[in-house]
UniProtKB/TrEMBL annotation:
Superkingdom assignment: Eukaryota
GO molecular-function terms, A-Z: ATP binding; single-stranded DNA binding
Any GO BP annotation: DNA recombination
Originating species: Rhododendron griersonianum
Gene3D superfamilies, alphabetized: P-loop containing nucleotide triphosphate hydrolases
Designated name of the protein: Uncharacterized protein
């Protein structure tokens, strides 16, 4: 049996910011130290604020997704 976990916001749908934040931390695109997240030269104080920052900053969000795609799928055709 496989298990999936996702976040859904009423009126908005599935939130991908949480998943992107997890993957970016895991692969070194975003640095996490304690409760702080270092995103594109900006310090965010906690996870909720980091997710909100990614949701409100389209350019930063898509740049992080682009970096993740390069790291995860590099060399695969």
């Amino acid at each position: 049996m496989k298990k999936a976990e996702l976040a859904i916001n009423f009126g908005r749908g599935i939130r991908c910011e949480s998943e992107v934040l997890d993957l970016a931390c895991k692969h070194g695109v975003i640095v996490e130290e304690g409760n702080n997240f270092f995103i594109d030269g900006y310090v965010v104080k906690n996870r909720k604020e980091a997710e909100r920052y990614l949701a409100e900053s389209d350019a930063v969000f898509y740049n992080i997704v682009k970096c993740l795609r390069c790291r995860l799928f590099e060399g695969q055709a």
